[in-house]
Design a protein that fits this description.
Layout (H helix, E strand, L loop, with lengths): L9 H10 L3 E3 L7 H4 L3 E4 L2 E4 L7 E6 L5 H4 L1 E7 L6
Parallel strand pairs: 1-3
Antiparallel strand pairs: 2-3, 4-5
Length: about 80
């Protein structure tokens, strides 16, 4: 958050508030977990998830849609640039 203001899309937040989907998936670097400290938040019944972005590491979120709160997990994989495949 820059100067206490959320940098996200007002239109997207309005959509979430009006339609209350179970899950929304995002990938904005300025809201990445290493900057915000969060990879998921709950807005009413909607879970908004951002696994993050990092040029050196792959990040993922796994969850069961029948129990998002109990199963959501954020994983950061090893350094991809120095890894050999």
């Amino acid at each position: 958050m820059a100067r206490g203001k959320h940098p996200g899309s007002k239109a997207l937040r309005t959509f979430i508030d009006q339609h209350a989907p179970l899950l929304t998936l995002h990938g904005h670097i300025h809201e990445a977990p290493h900057l915000s400290g969060q990879y998921a938040i709950q807005l009413g019944p909607t879970w908004s998830v951002n696994p993050g972005h990092d040029e050196r590491r792959f990040q993922a979120v796994s969850l069961d849609t029948d129990d998002v709160a109990g199963t959501i997990k954020h994983t950061v994989f090893d350094d991809l640039i120095s890894s050999k495949f």
